[in-house]
Design a protein that fits this description.
The protein is built from 16 helices and 20 strands. The protein is globular and about 65 Å long. Helix 1 (3-13) runs antiparallel to helix 3 (50-62), helix 8 (235-247) packs antiparallel against helix 10 and helix 9 (260-270) packs across helix 12 (331-338). The chain is of the alpha+beta class and 481 residues long. It has helices spanning 3-13, 23-26, 50-62, 115-124, 145-151, 158-161, 197-201, 235-247, 260-270, 290-306, 318-329, 331-338, 354-367, 394-413, 432-435, 438-451, and strands at residues 19-20, 43-45, 67-70, 87-90, 97-101, 106-110, 131-132, 168-174, 180-184, 210-217, 219-220, 224-232, 254-259, 280-288, 311-315, 341-344, 347-348, 371-376, 382-383, 385-389. It has four domains: 3-90, Uridine Diphospho-n-acetylenolpyruvylglucosamine Reductase, domain 2 (2-Layer Sandwich); 97-220, Uridine Diphospho-n-acetylenolpyruvylglucosamine Reductase, domain 3 (2-Layer Sandwich); 224-333, Alpha-Beta Plaits (2-Layer Sandwich); 339-423, Alpha-Beta Plaits. Bound molecules: flavin-adenine dinucleotide.
Length: 481
Amino acid sequence: MNRDSLLHDLQALLPAGSVVSDDAELLVYESDGFTIAHARPAAVVFPTTTAQASDVVKLLAKHDAQIVPRGSGTGLAGGCVGFENGVVVSTSRMNRIIEIDIPNRAAHVQAGVRNTQLSNAVAAQPGGAPLHFAPDPSSQSASTIGGNAATNAGGIHTLKDFVSSNHVFGIEIVLPDGSIATVGGQNACCEAGPFDLPGLFCGSEGTLGLITALWVRLAPKPVAYRTIVGIFDNSTDASSTVAEIIAAGLLPAAMEMLDGRMVRVVEEAFGFGFPSNAAALILTEIDGTDELLDAQMQMVADIHRRHHAISLETSSDAATRAKLWKARKATFGAIGRISHSYCTQDACVPRSTLPAVLQRIDEIGREFGLQINNVFHAGDGNIHPIFLYDDRDEWQVQNTLLAAEKVLKFCVDIGGTITGEHGVGVEKLHLMPYLFDPATMALFERVKKAIDPQERINAGKLIPSEKLHVNLLKPGRHVPQ
Ligand SMILES: Cc1cc2nc3c(=O)[nH]c(=O)nc-3n(C[C@H](O)[C@H](O)[C@H](O)COP(=O)(O)OP(=O)(O)OC[C@H]3O[C@@H](n4cnc5c(N)ncnc54)[C@H](O)[C@@H]3O)c2cc1C
């Protein structure tokens, strides 16, 4: 690839201001939220229409440049990093809501529309107030709907609302050769075409094409809530509470857990008044109609008591609910006070194994001399160990990667998987063969090659690539402290 000639052709193709190639400006696009993986792309381009996106993809193919799709760059697996002079194709200016169809509870959006941008626009429509776009990653004010589909994002309410693919019924996608395909339905009620192709593209992490538009479902918003916060002096009682609530047939909208270390960090930062011997906090939210909720809240509270909660608070009003959620939402801000850098890991395990997993994470942290705090979607068994380190110290970076690998392998060994919602990206690529057998890995590669035979788009992410391989672990530097 000749960069000068590529930049010349991109600038000739797109309106002024659509190509970023200045080193200082490219700095912003060197990484996503997983900052350990970074590389300066050759350029970043900002198409505004599907036709422009298709022309860009064709031009990049002509120049043999890697196409790297990017939404808002909030990903946590290095999926939109442009290694080896890749060209980042950003959808952030493809942010038009094309149609909101309240009677059919559907919307048609460009891929760069932000998650909350859609829900806010729906609420502002006549008759739209009771509806929203349900997937709610904590990044929802920034992350794009295209990015949510590409990573199959979950969120706090995934337990009840499920992940993004359940809310996407049609996708327009620019394929790696620049052709434009439309898969799935354009009508929420009708099945369209053979194969579940929207399902294939959801979670494909930009490795099969550039999503340019989506047709999504709008779901009813809950009308009433009850929120329950229980504190425990050991994590086994807390994990058993989670397991029993689910086993009882209750379906909370959310069930979040903070480990003792995280409770203390939040307490020191914000002074909620949590007991000093807190070893775990569970926040459960149930929603539905007022008539049913009080009885269900009682059941949830009784299960907490049976498992020896040392403190229990329930609420049915909006002000107390907001106060109770503050502890959960304050976690990442509180981490920022105590650590120079942090890396949020993501794995999924059977709920019954949570005590063993938390214990093992603690042991691995001690082994590598790292503090690991846990705040996670306990109801789904979707854990998020947060590794605290200092990115100015290469030893700590390498130990973070090694410790994370050990945690993820333990999760697989215990019957879990290496991602609950953040995806694989470049970060966990090396663990794919640990999780999947050779025949399954070969199938993934055949799917990739069928759609992208020349590996033009996001090579080296999600599926091993012959063309591009990034090794974040540096040989000889990864001895534990
Ligand atoms: C504070 C914080 C909280 C978070 N909370 C959650 C959470 O609760 N749940 C959760 O699931 N994730 C969470 N994330 C991770 C991240 O926000 C999600 O993965 C989100 O879906 C990424 O969207 P994005 O627009 O930022 O995509 P990007 O980060 O830009 O890209 C992510 C991946 O999708 C691909 N991609 C993006 N757009 C397209 C497109 N149009 N076509 C094809 N491929 C594309 C990229 O190539 C990359 O592989 C969080 C991140 C942060 C920083």
